[in-house]
Amino acid sequence: MTTPCLRVENLNVMYDVGKRKLHAAKDVSFEIAPGETLGLVGESGSGKSTAGLALLRLIEPSSGKIMLGDTNVATAGRRELQLLRKRMQMVFQDPYSSLNPSMTIEQLLTEPLIVHADMAASDRRAAVGKMLESVGLHAGYAARYPHEFSGGQRQRIAIARSMMLHPDLVVLDEPVSALDVSTQSQILKLLKNVQAASGTAFLLVAHDLAVVRLMSPRVAVMYLGEIVETGPSARVYDEPAHPYTAALISAVPFPDPVRQRSANRIILGGDLPSPLNPPSGCRFRTRCPFAMDICARAAPPTVQVEGGGVAACHLHTEGPKLGGRSLNAFMRERNIGAMEVTT
Ligand code: SF4
Q1: I need a surface site. Which of 19, 135, 275, 318 has the fewest CB within 10 A?
Q2: Could you identify the atom of ligand 1 that is nearest to the CA of residue 289?
């Protein structure tokens, strides 16, 4: 088996809010292979961006391991962290604010090289020109400022900046959500090309399930700070094994209206509970149409799912005892069409 590029084990991020603790990421664990893209999805407030930022220590983890190769990012000292930053980069959601407006594109792209690489100025200039061309921009744009570019061009520049040091991993935090639809598809295609050429692993943090399916062979689903399901995207999207995943996917429209009407659907109601006061037992229980008594009493076990991956839900070991089968299979067997949460 390939050694993972990144292995996250029981990552916790807690904030003090007055006298209370907010558990923004709870026992988050996953792996990413070299050159792989893992999608991390969930509603706004699910903790997916918090987890992404904690990987790079842009916010401090409270506990857990973040293994980049053999090095634990979570416990790295200042000097070691500076060296690790060379190997881990981030592309932010908003290309309008992530690029310093007072710096030229050349200054923005050479900054990581000045900090981390011992290169002559002429070599840095050549590297900038080459990188700009690799993201579909003219090398002559290096003398311009960010405000002279469109949103899509700025995100190309942000991607170029993240790749200047040939990192092992890039965290892409909602990289296309601020862009119009046609620009989105250009940037996603660019990211695929950049990855194919570089072998860099991506963690794609996004709320748009269509984007994640297009980009990520594997997906992890987060709810209220916890990962509730992971697996190959094809299996998770077609045969989800956790009610929350099924509800998220039910909200994605099918291009075929007949399939949409006949699909087994869980229509998600209510709002995300406050992470300051999460429900006992399963955190999804206040919105889950299948909730049982045990769901309030005990956190659900993680079970292996047929077709790959895991899900954390009592339905697999209690009540109908799905034993790792998909929720759709269960709903089809019981002839359940759509279920709506009314609470
Ligand atoms: Fe629903 Fe219970 Fe499963 Fe949570 S553990 S998702 S409440 S059935």
Answers
A1: 19
A2: 1
CA 285 to chain centre: 23
pLDDT of 299 strictly over 90: yes
* Ligand 1 pocket, residue 237 CB under 6 Å: no
Closest atom of ligand 1 to CA, residue 283 = 4
Closest by CA position to 244, among listed 270, 266, 272, 277: 266
Which residues are registered as beta bridge partners of 17?
A: 20
32 contacts: CB under 8 Å, gap ≥ 6: 4, 5, 6, 38, 169, 201, 202, 203
Q: Is 315 in the pocket of ligand 1 (CB under 6 A)?
A: yes
pLDDT tens string 88-123: 999 998 877 889 999 999 999 999 999 888 889 999
316 CA to centre of ligand 1 in angstroms: 9
Residue type, position 327, single letter: L
Give the position, in ligand 1's atom list, of the atom nearest the Cα of 285.
7
Does 257 have pLDDT greater than 80? no
Q: Which of 244, 280, 284 to mutate to test the pocket of ligand 1 (most atoms within 8 A of CB)?
A: 284
Q: Residue 108 has which token pair?
A: 């923005």
Question: Where do the domains of the chain lie, and which CATH numbers do they carry?
Answer: 6-216 (3.40.50.300), 240-341 (no CATH)
Q: For residue 148, what pLDDT is reported?
A: 95
Q: How far is the CA of 318 from the centre of ligand 1 (A)?
A: 10
Residue 243 Cβ contacting ligand 1 at under 6 Å: yes
